[in-house]
Amino acid sequence: MTAPKLISGLSAVADRYDVLLSDVWGVIHNGREHFPAACAALARFRAERGPVVLISNSPRPHPPVVEQLDSLGVPRAAWSALVTSGDATRALLAARAPGPAWAIGPERDGALYEGLGLQFAGPGIAAFISCTGPYDDEVETPEDYRERLSAAAGRGVEMICANPDIVVQRGDKLIYCGGAIAQLYASLGGRVSMAGKPHPAIYDLSVAEAERLAGRGVSRERILCIGDGLATDVAGANAQGLDVLFIASGIHGAETVGESGLDAAAVDGLLARGGHSAAFVAADLEW
């Protein structure tokens, strides 16, 4: 497996690509504030090269996520379109309406279900589970759900997970996401279906959106994915045969970035242990 090339900024490779598919949380913001240098890099690529499609494992359809980006100060100039796991998941949910569904997740994710004709019930009688994350991601862990999930798995209930991320960084804290609950459910013998990264559905939507914006077909060799998650961003790009720029300072930053900067050997080892590959690596996204 070839080690990724360490680059100082996106400008080093921008001329090789016509489209960017960029992760959001961990690359352009941390849930509390946006990263100005990353946003500026995306804006420059968009102005000089082509579409920038943000590809997020947010369990909500994209309109509320746009509002979140605005509230965090992410400039609209930094992106051309946004595709979320919620967008891709709605098709899975609609096919299982009216349910009833046991919906695990905070109230803020309610937009995922709007207009789908779903009914809701508790874990004891639900026909399937829809998971967007913990009810309270500030305090809960997947273990808080073990007993209820074990019973549901015993009944053969399928889980639709709208956010495959295991953890994300909120400020300086890592919080559990839907993928962590889905991981536990699978370990208990439960069936899990997902549409977000690293699964194909969200990439199909994102590439189609990029080609619509470009007004033409785009060769996969001319698409660069950017992300900080090995199990989602990097694994997804690898499965799609797309080049990826791994941003090391995100959720894996404690393992790969020290006081002296990026530890290339640590990055190589991290990728190798997971069977992943990246074309390029940078500590942070900048031009």
Kindly describe this structure:
The protein has about 290 residues and is an alpha/beta fold. It is built from nine helices and 15 strands. It folds into two domains: about 5-85 and about 200-280, Rossmann fold, CATH 3.40.50; about 90-195, Rossmann fold (3-Layer(aba) Sandwich), CATH 3.40.50. A seven-stranded parallel beta sheet has the order 1-15-12-11-2-3-4, sandwiched between helices. Strands 5-6-7-10 form a four-stranded parallel beta sheet, sandwiched between helices. Helix 1 (about 35-50) links the parallel strand 2 and strand 3 (about 50-55). The protein is globular and about 55 Å long.
Q: What's the arrangement of secondary structure elements?
A:
Layout: E1 5-6, E2 19-22, H1 36-48, E3 52-56, H2 62-71, E4 81-84, H3 85-94, E5 101-104, E6 128-131, H4 146-154, E7 158-161, E8 167-170, E9 173-176, H5 178-187, E10 191-194, H6 200-214, E11 223-227, H7 230-240, E12 243-247, H8 253-256, E13 257-258, E14 261-262, H9 264-274, E15 280-282
Parallel strand pairs: 1-15, 2-3, 2-11, 3-4, 5-6, 6-7, 7-10, 11-12, 12-15
Antiparallel strand pairs: 8-9, 13-14
Instruction: Identify low-pLDDT runs.
Output: none
Global mean pLDDT? 94
Largest sheet: 7 strands, parallel
How many domains? The number is 2
The geometry reads as globular
Instruction: Strand order, main sheet: write it out.
Output: 1-15-12-11-2-3-4
* Spatial separation of the terminal alpha carbons: 27 Å
User: What is the β-strand count?
Assistant: 15
CATH architecture of the largest domain: 3-Layer(aba) Sandwich
CATH class placement of the largest domain: Alpha Beta
How many helix segments? 9
What is the percent of helical residues? 25-40%
Structural class: alpha/beta
- Radius of gyration over C-alpha positions, nearest whole angstrom: 19 Å
Order of helices and strands: EEHEHEHEEHEEEHEHEHEHEEHE
CATH superfamily annotation of the largest domain: HAD superfamily/HAD-like
Q: Which percent range describes the beta-strand content?
A: 15-25%
**CATH domain fold name of the largest domain:** Rossmann fold
